[in-house]
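Appendix C. Worked example: ATP-binding cassette domain-containing protein
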Amino acid sequence: MNLIEINHLHKHYATHKAVDDISFVIPKGSIFGLLGPNGAGKTTLLRMITGIFYPDSGEILFNGRAFNPETDVHAIGYMPEEKGLYKKMKVGEQVLYLARLKGMSEREAKDRISYWFNKFEINSWQNKKVEELSKGMQQKVQFIATIIHNPQLLILDEPFSGLDPINANLIKQEIFDLSKSGTTIIFSTHRMEQVEEICDRIVLVNEGKKLLDGEVSQIKQDFKQHLFRVGFGVMPNFAQVATYHFSIVKTEPLAYTVKLSEGSTTNDILAHFINHRIPITSFHEILPSINEVFIQQVTSMTGKAPEATAVLNETPAASSL
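Step 2, the predicted output written as structure tokens:
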């Protein structure tokens, strides 16, 4: 089942097509990555999903029915990259205030605050002002404020910004736990290794158009180049390795990266070394990273590689989500 269905969305600004006939689905409980360089249309998509903008045409379905911003917004939690906290307000009072805006009763909100503050070991921060906290501390408070009302849809923009490795792992584990409990998550980051580690599915957009979408594992399979890394106990000489079944594309100490020839199989690679009595210590396929797929697809469309900082670093306007 899908929590979000995007069907043929269009959004134009004067002559600029910010979103041009984009469709995709976000399954319930999935961790979904929205990828694209600056100006690709990601921010506009998120603003339409959260009801900040209305599409010119197309439809957004939420839980199988037309999205209604007035009612469905309470089922959404949004954590922007730029903090939306009041700097002069005490931490405990602020989270309570934001929880009440989500429609929670005071008693329920206080119970949830107690649960999360104890879990994150930050009870001592309750009477501190936000401006007294480090960026990492603010990030933890923002995360709690975002999930306090148990949203069905959670939108996270650079959730690990400013966090040390220990606290980053803490937030990462909470993301996995929330997903397992049924929360659907849209994950936004410019760190492609985080996309690969965390996301189940992704959609890649550029210049308002969808370039690809699907499961991360399947996309890596779809773009594989039939490369394999073969490790050895003793490095063979080139004459022993030469064969029409594969070509050598990279040499490392005690290893070759080889490209399988058309019509050959992995068994042909292994059989070749076995026939030459060359002991193999390791053998595995090299799949492309999501970063490599991203660069390839955007470059193919535009004729130039995206800027290094151009991936997923747009921040939608802050709202009361």
